[in-house]
Amino acid sequence: MRESRHLGQIARLFRRPISEVRQTLRALREAGMLPGKRGGDLRPHHLADVVFGLCSEGIQASPRCVRELRLARLQDAADLPATAGEMLRAVIATLPKSPVLGDLDLDDGFLSVSDDSVRLECLSLSGKRAVIRYGLTDDTASPTYQFKLNEIRELAEIVEAFNCENRKTETYRTA
Questions:
Q1: pLDDT value for 38
Q2: Is 127 exposed, middle or buried (0-12, 13-18, 19+ CB in 10 A)?
Q3: Is 144 exposed, middle or buried (0-12, 13-18, 19+ CB in 10 A)?
Q4: What pLDDT score does 111 carry?
Q5: Mean pLDDT of 73-86
Q6: Beta-carbon count within 10 A of 58 CB
Q7: CA angle 89, 94, 96 (to 5 degrees)
Q8: Cα gap 105→126, rounded to integer Å
Q9: What SS3 state is found at 103?
């Protein structure tokens, strides 16, 4: 069963084996976090759960990890959403259109994710390096995965372009 039309692109952009990505998407779909009978119906707002799921220790733990990371609270004074899930959804919604979110320049930034914390690193509009932490601020024993924000931007553009093309096809069929 093909879990997603974007399986190869997710694996390439996040440098993960296709089998791991497929099983993670399946676990998230079965937990009700991704839509449809297949994960192929991804929308840009689902990408936050995909990113968090790929950072879990073990595929079966990915739904639990996604739930915990979504609710990780903001630890620093910043003009960003209060939870990591909301922040990543805002980043994904902002990136294809503009590199600026609040007072942060997201170009060339990084997102570091572990089992219990999320860290957004980028430049502020004043030119200083900004590090915004969500979740536990102590060093964690779990591995930390680092993603370039431009990779997340590219995936969001691919998913959105596919969905726009799919909507055009459905409109032509109904006409």
A1: 52
A2: exposed
A3: middle
A4: 92
A5: 88
A6: 11
A7: 115
A8: 9
A9: coil
pLDDT tens-digit readout, 19-67: 998 899 889 988 888 886 554 578 888 889 999 998 888 888 889 999 9
Phi-psi region of 30 (alpha: psi -120 to 50; beta: other; left: phi over 0): alpha
Give yes or no for a contact between 17 and 173, defined as CB atoms under 8 angstroms apart: no
Q: How far apart are CA 125 and CA 8, in angstroms?
A: 34
The tokens describing 128, both together, are 């200083």
At residue 121, does pLDDT exceed 90? yes
From 149, 136, 71, select the one nearest 109 (Cα to Cα): 149
Q: Are 123 and 87 in contact (CB under 8 A)?
A: no
**Which strand (E) or helix (H) includes residue 154?**
helix 149-174
Q: Among candidates 12, 1, 67, 66, which has minimal Cα distance to 39?
A: 1
Contact 6, 155 (CB under 8 A): yes
CA 27 to chain centre: 16
CA 51, 2, 32, 27 dihedral sign is: negative
Rounded CA separation 118/100 (Å) = 19
SS3 34: coil
